[in-house]
C-alpha cells in the first residue's frame, strides 16, 4: 500500500468501522474485476453505510490525494467499476425503495437491484424505464451512472429522460437534493459560480449552430460516449443541467445517493415472435418500417452467426435450426397492450408490416409467457454464448455501437467485414434494432503483444467506421469507461470534447473521481490493465466474470461470491504454474480455505443465475475433496435409526435447557461453547423440539389401486388459528394409495415447538383429498444420502441412496404407486439420481410441492385464512422447477403473498448449525423485506424454516401444515378407482 493510501486508511479508520474497510490481498484481488476485460486491484475497498461516511471518504481523499471509484453491482462492461486506488462499494445501507404517487414515481437508493425496483411497482402496473439485460443483478447506482437503457426502453424511457429528482454529493462533500426546495436554494447560493459556468457552457453550444445541431443529432441515437452534454441545451435551469449531467457520468462528477424516476406503464398483455429473413437488407428495412409504425415495444436483430450460435437451445422455432442463408438475419419482436384486444390489434399490425419485406419464416406471436421467456433468454444469452465456447486463456469482449437506423444493414455488413479482416471468426452481432444499436461479441486473447496489437488495430478501425464514417455512437448504452475514453475526442470533435473536459475540471478539479474514465490523456488506456483469463479448472473456465451469479449467493457480503471465488482460484492456479510470487500464493491459499471453500453453501444457486450454467459449488466440492472420516460416515449410514434417535434426544435436552435457563441464556451459552469447541453445533433460536412419532399408516406395497382407510388424525398447532378450516373427513372414502417417504430431517425436527410431526398434517391432507399414505417397511433407517454426499462421503451416500431406492421400489409395487417425498432437498436428490440412472426408472417420484399442487389441491376447497404470508422458495424447489407452484398454493391461503428475493437462505444442510454466520449473512435482509402485517411464513424445507424463523422474526411453517389449516375436502371431489 502506498504511503498516501496508508495515511488515508489511518484517518478513515477514525470515521468508519474497520470491519467495513478491506485491505487484505485476497479480497482486494477479488474486487479487482468487473464484467469488463480490465483488471485493477484496489488498495482499499470501503463499504460506507450512509452519506456521512461517503462524505468522510471524499474529504480524506482530497486531503491525501487518493482517487476514489464508486461501484454498485460491478456488472459494468467498459472498465468503469475497477480501480487501483480506493473502491467504494454500495451494499447494505443503500437499498431503500419508496413508491410515490401511487407508483407514478419511485425513489431509489443506489444499492437497489433494478429488478427489485420493478418488483415494488408490479402491483400498480408500472416499472422503471431502464431495462438492461443485467437488470436482475445491476443496481440503480450503476444503471444511473451509465445511463443504462436496454431492449425496450429505447431513448425515450432511459434514465436521463425519466429522471424526476436526484440527491447527489459533489466532490467537495456538498449535497444537493433537487426534490428539496431548501436544498436547491442553499446550493444556488453556495455554488453560484458552478451553476453560472454550466449556463455559460450551455450558451456556448447554443451559440454554435453546427455544434448544437451535432449534439441534438447524436442524442437522437442511443449515446453514452462522453458526458451527456445535451443536458446543457435541453434545460435552462443549471440545477436541471447538473442533475442530468450526472446521468451517464460514471462516477466521475459526483456520487448519486438517491434517484427518483418517473415510472412507465408495464402492460400485462405481451406477445413475442421470431421472424427469419434470408437477406439482411430485407430484415433491416423491416426494422425501419416497424419503428415508423409504432406498434412494437422491442425489436432485436440477430445476425446469421448468432442464429448458428443458439441452435443448441431448446424451444426455438424449427426454422432457426440447420444451415442458414449467407446473409440471413432474424428479428425477435415484442409488443404489448393494456388489454387483450389492444394486444391483438398490435400483433396484427406488426404481422402486416413484416409481411411486406419478404420474410422466409415467421413463428407467429405467442402470448405464452414460457415461450416469450425462452425467446428472450436465448437473446440475453448471446453474450455469454461466445464466452462459453472461447478458447481457454482468451477473454470475452462486448462492444455496443449505434448507427443511424436507416444505415443499419450497411453497418452490420461493414462490421462483419472488420471481423473477417482481423480474424475474429467467433464474433456475433445482435442488438436493439429499433435504435440502430448493435452489440458485437468476440473473444480476443491478450497473452501476447501481437494479440494486443490485433485488438488495437481492430478498435481503431471500428472507431473510424462508426464514429467518423457513419456519424454513430461508439458507446450506445454500456458507458464510455476505459475502453472508449481514448476515442471520445474522435467521435465528438475538438469543440464538444473541450466542453466535456471543462465539465470534468469544474466538478472534479483534482481529478480524483474515477480518473481516466470518460476523460483521459492516455491514448493507450484501452490497451492497459487488460484482464488475463488463465485456466483454472474446466468446471469454471467458461466464466466471463459478469457477476450475474452474485445476488443468488448466500456468502455475498460475508466472504467471497462465486465470481470472486473463480477470480481468486484463477490467480492461485496461475501463481502455482509460473512461481512468480510465492508470498502471495501462500496468502491466497491460506485465505481460500475459509473464504473460498468453508463458507460456500455449494447449493448451486449460482448456476441458476449464470448465463452459461456454471456451478461454482461443483468446483468447491471438488476442492474440498472427500470426506475427512469416511469410515465414520459409513458407520453413521449403517446405524441411521440410532443416530436420528440420538439427535432427537439432543433436541429434548435443548428443550429442557430452555425451560430451565430460558431461551436467550441457552442460545448464548450454546454460542460460547461453539466458539470454544467448533465441533459443537449452534442451535438457532427457532430450532424446534424433537418430532413426534410418525402417524400410523399401512405398509406398502398394496395389492389394489384403491383402498379403504381411516382418516389420519388432524395436524396440530395452527399459526393461522386453532382448529383449522374444515379438518373433518368423511368417515369412509375410497382412497388412492401413495407411498410416503419421510426424510430423516423431518423425522428428527418437529413441525413446531408442540412436537408435531410433519406427517400429521400431510396425512390429514391426504385423507381430505382421497389419498391413503403407505409407509416403507424400514422407514426409520432410510436416508436419501444428501448429508453424506455434501460431506464428500460418496460411498456412504451411494449406499444410502441404493437402500432407499430398493425400499421405494418395494413399497410402490415396482413403481405402480406414486411416491411422495416430504422434504425439498431430499426430493431433488432422489429425482436427480433417477435422471442419472441411479434409481429405477419405474419409480413415480414427486416432490411435495408438485404433488400437493397437481394432485391434492384440486381436490380441496382452500380458504384464504391469512391476510399476509411470506414465502421462501428453497434452492432445491427452484432447481426442481416447482417454485411457481409453491407461490401459487400460498396465494390460495393468503390475501397478500410476499416473496423476498432470497435465492438461498444459506442454511445449506447442516451449515446453519456449524457455520451460523452464513445463514445470518444470507438472511440479513429478510426482516426488512417482510410487510409490517406479516406474521407467518411458509417454505418446503425443514432446515430452511428454522433459519428463516430465527432471522425473520416470524414462524415459518411447512406447506403441508398451511394447506391443512386452510382447507377442507372439495364438495365435488370424485374418488378415482
TrEMBL record:
Q: Which cofactor does it need?
A: FAD
The source organism is Derxia gummosa DSM 723
Q: Which UniProt keywords apply?
A: FAD, Flavoprotein, Iron, Iron-sulfur, Metal-binding, Oxidoreductase, Transit peptide
Q: Which domain of life is it from?
A: Bacteria
One BP annotation, GO: lactate catabolic process
Q: Which residues are in the 4Fe-4S ferredoxin-type domain?
A: 532-563
Entry keyword annotation includes Methyltransferase: no
Give the family, as the similarity comment puts it: Belongs to the FAD-binding oxidoreductase/transferase type 4 family.
Q: What is this protein called?
A: D-lactate dehydrogenase (cytochrome)
Q: What is its EC number?
A: 1.1.2.4
Q: Which PROSITE patterns match?
A: 4FE4S_FER_1, 4FE4S_FER_2, FAD_PCMH
Domain called FAD-binding PCMH-type: residue spans? 38-266
According to the UniProt entry, its GO molecular function terms are: D-lactate dehydrogenase (cytochrome) activity; D-lactate dehydrogenase (NAD+) activity; FAD binding; iron-sulfur cluster binding; metal ion binding
Q: Which PANTHER family match?
A: D-LACTATE DEHYDROGENASE (PTHR11748), D-LACTATE DEHYDROGENASE, MITOCHONDRIAL-RELATED (PTHR11748:SF111)
Amino acid at each position: 500500500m502506498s504511503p498516501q493510501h496508508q495515511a488515508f486508511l489511518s484517518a478513515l479508520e477514525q470515521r468508519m468501522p474497520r470491519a467495513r474497510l478491506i485491505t487484505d490481498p485476497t479480497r482486494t484481488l477479488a474486487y479487482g474485476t468487473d464484467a469488463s476485460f480490465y483488471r485493477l486491484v484496489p488498495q482499499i475497498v470501503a463499504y460506507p453505510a450512509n452519506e456521512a461516511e461517503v462524505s468522510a471518504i471524499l474529504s480524506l481523499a482530497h486531503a491525501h490525494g487518493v482517487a476514489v471509484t464508486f461501484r454498485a453491482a460491478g456488472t459494468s462492461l467498459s472498465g468503469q467499476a475497477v480501480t487501483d486506488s480506493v473502491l467504494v462499494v454500495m451494499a447494505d445501507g443503500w437499498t431503500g425503495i419508496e413508491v410515490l404517487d401511487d407508483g407514478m414515481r419511485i425513489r431509489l437508493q443506489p444499492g437497489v437491484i433494478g429488478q427489485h425496483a420493478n418488483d415494488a411497482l408490479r402491483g400498480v402496473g408500472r416499472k422503471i424505464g431502464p431495462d438492461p439485460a443485467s437488470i436482475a443483478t445491476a443496481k440503480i447506482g450503476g444503471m444511473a451512472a451509465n445511463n443504462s437503457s436496454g431492449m425496450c426502453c429505447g431513448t425515450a424511457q432511459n434514465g436521463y429522460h425519466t429522471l424526476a429528482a436526484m440527491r447527489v454529493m459533489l466532490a467537495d462533500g456538498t449535497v444537493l437534493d433537487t426534490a428539496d426546495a431548501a436544498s436547491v436554494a442553499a446550493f444556488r447560493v453556495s455554488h453560484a459560480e458552478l451553476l453560472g459556468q454550466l449556463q455559460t457552457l450551455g450558451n456556448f453550444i447554443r451559440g454554435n449552430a453546427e455544434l448544437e445541431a451535432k449534439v441534438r443529432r447524436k442524442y437522437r441515437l442511443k449515446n453514452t460516449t462522453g458526458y451527456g452534454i445535451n443536458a446543457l441545451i435541453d434545460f435552462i435551469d443549471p440545477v436541471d443541467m447538473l442533475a442530468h449531467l450526472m446521468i451517464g457520468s460514471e462516477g466521475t462528477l459526483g456520487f448519486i445517493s438517491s434517484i427518483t424516476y418517473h415510472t412507465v406503464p408495464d402492460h400485462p398483455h405481451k406477445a413475442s415472435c421470431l421472424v427469419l429473413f434470408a437477406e439482411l437488407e430485407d430484415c433491416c428495412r423491416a426494422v425501419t418500417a416497424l419503428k415508423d409504425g409504432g406498434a412494437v415495444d422491442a425489436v432485436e436483430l440477430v445476425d446469421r452467426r448468432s442464429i448458428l450460435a443458439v441452435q443448441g437451445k431448446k424451444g426455438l422455432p424449427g426454422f432457426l435450426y440447420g444451415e442458414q442463408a449467407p446473409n440471413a438475419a432474424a428479428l425477435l419482436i415484442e409488443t404489448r397492450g393494456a388489454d387483450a384486444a389492444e394486444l391483438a390489434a398490435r400483433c396484427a399490425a406488426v404481422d402486416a408490416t413484416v409481411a411486406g419485406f419478404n420474410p422466409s419464416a415467421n413463428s407467429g406471436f405467442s402470448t405464452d409467457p414460457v415461450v416469450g421467456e425462452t425467446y428472450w433468454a436465448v437473446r440475453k444469452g448471446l453474450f455469454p454464448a461466445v464466452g462459453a465456447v472461447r478458447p481457454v486463456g482468451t477473454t470475452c469482449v462486448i462492444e455496443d455501437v449505434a448507427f443511424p437506423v436507416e444505415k443499419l444493414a450497411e453497418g452490420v455488413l461493414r462490421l462483419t467485414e472488420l471481423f473477417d479482416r482481423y480474424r475474429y471468426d467467433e464474433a456475433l452481432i445482435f442488438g436493439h434494432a429499433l435504435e440502430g444499436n448493435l452489440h458485437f461479441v468476440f473473444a480476443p486473447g491478450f497473452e501476447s503483444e501481437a494479440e494486443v496489437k490485433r485488438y488495437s488495430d481492430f478498435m481503431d478501425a471500428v472507431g473510424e467506421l462508426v464514429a467518423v464514417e457513419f456519424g454513430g455512437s461508439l458507446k450506445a448504452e454500456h458507458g464510455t469507461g476505459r475502453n472508449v475514453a481514448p476515442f471520445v475526442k474522435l467521435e465528438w470533435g475538438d469543440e464538444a470534447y473541450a466542453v466535456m473536459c471543462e465539465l470534468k475540471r469544474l466538478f472534479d478539479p483534482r481529478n480524483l473521481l474515477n480518473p481516466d474514465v470518460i476523460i483521459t490523456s492516455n491514448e493507450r488506456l484501452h490497451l492497459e490493465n487488460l484482464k488475463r483469463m488463465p485456466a483454472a479448472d474446466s468446471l469454471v473456465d467458461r466464466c466471463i466474470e459478469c457477476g450475474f451469479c452474485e445476488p443468488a449467493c448466500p456468502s455475498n457480503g460475508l466472504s467471497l461470491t462465486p465470481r470472486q471465488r473463480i477470480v481468486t482460484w484463477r490467480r492461485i492456479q496461475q501463481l502455482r504454474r509460473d512461481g512468480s510470487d510465492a508470498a502471495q500464493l501462500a496468502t491466497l491459499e491460506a485465505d481460500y480455505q475459509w473464504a473460498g471453500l468453508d463458507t460456500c453453501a455449494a447449493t448451486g444457486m449460482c448456476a441458476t443465475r449464470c448465463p452459461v450454467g456454471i456451478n461454482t459449488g461443483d468446483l468447491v466440492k471438488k476442492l474440498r475433496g472427500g470426506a475427512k472420516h469416511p469410515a465414520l460416515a459409513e458407520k453413521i449410514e449403517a446405524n441411521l435409526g440410532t443416530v436420528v434417535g440420538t439427535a432427537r434426544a439432543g433436541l429434548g435436552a435443548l428443550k429442557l435447557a430452555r425451560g430451565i435457563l430460558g431461551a436467550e441464556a441457552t442460545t448464548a451459552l450454546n454460542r460460547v461453547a461453539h466458539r470454544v469447541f467448533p465441533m459443537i453445533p449452534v442451535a438457532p433460536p427457532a430450532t424446534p423440539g424433537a418430532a413426534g412419532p410418525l402417524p400410523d399408516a399401512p405398509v406398502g406395497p398394496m395389492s389394489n389401486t384403491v383402498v379403504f382407510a381411516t382418516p389420519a388424525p388432524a395436524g396440530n398447532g395452527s399459526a393461522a388459528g386453532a382448529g383449522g378450516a374444515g379438518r373433518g373427513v368423511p368417515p369412509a372414502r375410497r382412497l388412492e394409495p401413495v407411498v410416503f417417504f419421510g426424510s430423516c430431517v423431518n423425522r428428527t425436527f418437529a413441525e413446531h415447538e408442540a412436537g408435531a410431526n410433519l406427517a400429521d398434517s400431510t396425512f390429514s391432507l391426504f385423507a381430505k383429498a382421497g389419498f391413503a399414505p403407505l409407509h416403507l417397511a424400514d422407514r426409520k433407517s432410510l436416508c436419501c444420502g444428501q448429508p453424506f454426499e455434501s460431506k464428500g462421503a460418496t460411498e456412504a451416500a451411494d449406499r444410502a441412496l441404493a437402500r432407499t431406492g430398493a425400499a421405494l421400489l418395494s413399497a410402490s409395487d415396482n413403481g405402480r404407486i406414486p411416491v411422495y417425498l416430504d422434504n425439498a432437498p431430499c426430493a431433488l436428490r432422489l429425482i436427480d439420481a433417477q435422471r442419472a440412472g441411479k434409481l429405477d426408472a419405474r419409480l413415480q417420484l414427486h416432490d411435495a410441492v408438485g404433488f400437493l399442487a397437481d394432485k391434492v389441491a384440486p381436490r380441496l376447497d382452500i380458504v384464504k385464512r391469512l391476510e399476509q404470508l411470506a414465502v421462501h422458495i428453497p434452492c432445491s424447489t427452484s432447481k426442481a422447477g416447482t417454485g411457481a407452484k409453491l407461490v401459487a398454493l400460498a396465494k390460495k391461503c393468503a390475501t397478500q403473498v410476499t416473496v423476498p428475493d432470497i435465492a438461498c437462505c444459506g442454511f445449506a444442510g447442516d451449515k446453519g448449525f456449524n457455520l451460523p454466520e452464513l445463514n445470518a449473512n444470507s438472511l440479513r435482509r429478510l426482516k426488512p423485506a417482510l410487510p409490517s402485517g406479516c406474521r407467518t411464513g411458509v417454505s418446503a424445507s425443514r432446515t430452511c424454516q428454522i433459519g428463516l424463523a430465527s432471522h425473520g422474526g416470524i414462524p415459518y411453517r411447512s406447506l403441508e401444515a398451511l394447506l391443512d389449516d386452510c382447507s377442507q375436502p372439495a364438495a365435488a371431489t370424485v374418488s378415482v378407482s
